[in-house]
């Protein structure tokens, strides 16, 4: 299913609140230890990337075009 989940929220006010996304993951059986919530998209993406690299895992980023744009910027 996934080893960790890094949750961010779009700044444009159109996305789901990050706490709601985390609660939905918990409702589907994901333990709270696997869920990390960030206030800054760039920081969340960078930490998720570093964690995936350290563990030899694949990083999958999902979200809106706004999130994707911020993710691409954070990844350079």
Question: How would you describe this structure to a colleague?
Answer:
- Helices cover 47% and strands 8% of the residues.
- The chain is built from three helices and two strands; from the N terminus they run E-H-E-H-H.
- The chain has helices at 18-27, 41-55, 65-75; strands at 5-7, 35-37.
- A two-stranded parallel sheet has the order 1-2.
- Strand 1, helix 1 and strand 2 (35-37) form a beta-alpha-beta unit.
- Helix 2 (41-55) crosses helix 3 (65-75).
- The chain starts with a strand and ends with a helix.
- The model has no long low-confidence stretch (mean pLDDT 93).
Concise account of the structure shown:
The protein has 76 residues and is mainly alpha-helical. Helix content is 47%, strand content 8%. The protein has a two-stranded parallel sheet with strand order 1-2.
Present the secondary structure layout:
Elements: E1 5-7, H1 18-27, E2 35-37, H2 41-55, H3 65-75
Parallel strand pairs: 1-2
